[in-house]
């Protein structure tokens, strides 16, 4: 009993044990990683939207979030019935066009194309792309499972959002239980998780959306084919810090060269460089705060390790998770 009381009073040791237990629990439930992360992202964005509206109008969360989810469902229906089939057709056509160009005599004798292909090999981007395409193909061939995951995450986030005040009161009631120290520590880490992981991931999504819109505008001006398909690719790659820009530049360069030769490819480089500069010097300082900036070497190491541990999801959430641990250790802190 004395050992137990001493353990409870030793807050640093106690919190280390609780954190390790939480990590072990998450690792055991890693098969549900997609559902957990999607639910967290949807819920985080929904609750933030509710709090934003409640600053100006005193409305119940139910009446704030329900119309938003109805609109989202309507937009998904329109996408599924009208736009997605066209995007798939244009994507297939674009891939065929690129392969036809690559197989042609012109491309095989072109030193610039050879240089781009060699760059892919040197950066080992082909392995990353193959891994990503394999993961995408696995999801495409199992649409039922991924659809079920999205629907469940969407519903869970909706139920939590319109009962957010009740859920908060319910969670605080555990801090008055017989194991109050345990739930106080869990609440401590949960608060830090939301204030670091959630904020960084939300900023990452906003930056990816802005990058995608600007890139789509630039590609439209340059008369690229299948801009919606390329915009989807840019959005998902923009979720990968630093490396996403490099990976996306290779296919965009090759497509630009097939569209208008060297001049168009240079224009693509200039456009991507300008957008990346906007992200680095304007969006990141405004949305991420300078404390979340990491050296490029550290960023790539974190991405490599997280990709090995979490698969494709690791490329998206690796940096936010690393930032969370930095905050827990007191290395970096995010503005509260």
TrEMBL record:
Keyword entries, A-Z: Membrane, Transmembrane, Transmembrane helix
Gene Ontology cellular-component terms listed: membrane
InterPro entries: AI-2E-like
Organism domain of life: Bacteria
Transmembrane annotation, as ranges: 12-29, 36-54, 60-80, 139-160, 203-222, 234-260, 266-284, 296-326
Any one GO biological process: transmembrane transport
Primary localization class, coarse: membrane
Subcellular location: Membrane
Pfam families for the chain: AI-2E_transport
Recorded topology in the membrane: Multi-pass membrane protein
Family: Belongs to the autoinducer-2 exporter (AI-2E) (TC 2.A.86) family.
Protein name (database record): Permease
